[in-house]
Amino acid sequence: xxxxxxxxxxxxxxxxxxxxxxxxxxxxxxxxxxxxxxxxxxxxxxxxxxxxxxxxxxxxxxxxxxxxxxxxxxxxxxxxxxxxxxxxxxxxxxxxxxxxxxxxxxxxxxxxxxxxxxxxxxxxxxxxxxxxxxxxxxxxxxxxxxxxxxxxxxxxxxxxxxxxxxxxxxxxxxxxxxxxxxxxxxxxxxxxxxxxxxxxxxxxxxxxxxxxxxxxxxxxxxxxxxxxxxxxxxxxxxxxxxxxxxxxxxxxxxxxxxxxxxxxxxxxxxxxxxxxxxxxxxxxxxxxxxxxxxxxxxxxxxxxxxxxxxxxxxxxxxxxxxxxxxxxxxxxxxxxxxxxxxxxxxxxxxxxxxxxxxxxxxxxxxxxxxxxxxxxxxxxxxxxxxxxxxxxxxxxxxxxxxxxxxxxxxxxxxxxxxxxxxxxxxxxxxxxxxxxxxxxxxxxxxxxxxxxxxxxxxxxxxxxxxxxxxxxxxxxxxxxx
Length: 481
What we know:
Blueprint: E1 14-18, E2 21-25, H1 38-43, H2 48-51, E3 68-71, E4 77-81, E5 84-89, E6 99-103, E7 112-117, E8 124-129, E9 133-138, E10 141-147, E11 152-158, E12 163-168, E13 172-177, E14 182-188, E15 194-199, E16 206-210, E17 214-219, E18 224-230, E19 242-247, E20 254-259, E21 263-268, E22 276-279, E23 288-292, E24 301-305, E25 310-313, E26 320-324, E27 331-336, E28 342-347, E29 354-356, H3 369-376, E30 384-385, E31 389-393, H4 394-399, E32 411-414, E33 417-421, H5 422-454, H6 462-480
Parallel strand pairs: 1-30
Antiparallel strand pairs: 1-2, 2-29, 3-4, 4-5, 5-6, 7-8, 8-9, 9-10, 11-12, 12-13, 13-14, 15-16, 16-17, 17-18, 19-20, 20-21, 21-22, 23-24, 24-25, 25-26, 27-28, 28-29, 31-33, 32-33
């Protein structure tokens, strides 16, 4: 849709500078349904945040939440799935309204958790549903549905053999041949269950990530395993699982592996040790990994997301480029338009926010006005944030026992306080949490004992009463004598 702003002009964007990289929030927080009374709409004319909103794809929203969102390879359509599946056409200069293409017509809600594009556009789609079924969809509607033996977790498509690969809670990788219309022999892995599966568009290797933290690669020509990498590099990572996988799109020999403890490891498939390990510092599973080629650099960037944050960083150095932290819901998925800086997020929220990062690339052709809009924006209202650092005041530094680090390289004076390395802050905070817990436990025990003592019933003995009476009468007798 064309940008909507106050006074009939072009809307403005909320911008933030993170590590010197400008980030523009394209989707406003406020949303007015078409059936809202005109009186209420007129009252929003005084709302500055509503007037500065910008809606690229109008009405692209869910009643509850969005689980997955994808862009077709030709960049013309956006597919968002949840309880329903919506399709938005963005191929023209103006994005059209979203269209419902698939919904559950049964007696209970059905979640379309995973979607896989089988062609260049939306004409051939596959959806992995919550009832172990795989729904195949064509332009005219639902084409066929088939059930797999175990609960499905991920989908991948091998366009060279027309095999739809289904990862499930099983050591077997199920194969559905869409040309023959039947199941083929499964690929057996050494993992107890498979969480994710991906395929390289360069050399055709299929990689599976298991519950035991291992990545196993298969050559579809031999239908057998050609290598296995154990990603549990230390004793602390023994219980980790592989939650996301993605091959690079330039040469194909690099693979990024996301774990259930919030770490991303970059491997060369010819080596068993990681080239780089990146910690998201939240401890949440990595949900999605994207390799994105920036027009400003010859080397690609990695876009990794957990439920708290989306990080854009350099796989060669591990340095953060920028990050996105939504404040209106947990992150479920992320997608970015090819050769562009426009990013869409799927959240536990009815809205699907869009963010534009010019450093990653220009705006897509269908919303090319974003480039002109960002160039004309004023840079007065912006917040500078720093990744890997935590801001603390003087009182917080003393309370955490970090005053001794003021003269070190880990702490820098900033504004009315200090900026400290996040790993040092996290380590000191963990120590204090243990001490606070032990102190709190002792106080709770003491209060409990005091309450029990107060609730006791004391018996007054007769000899005690007699003794008190004698003490009270003793001074009187002395005076009479």
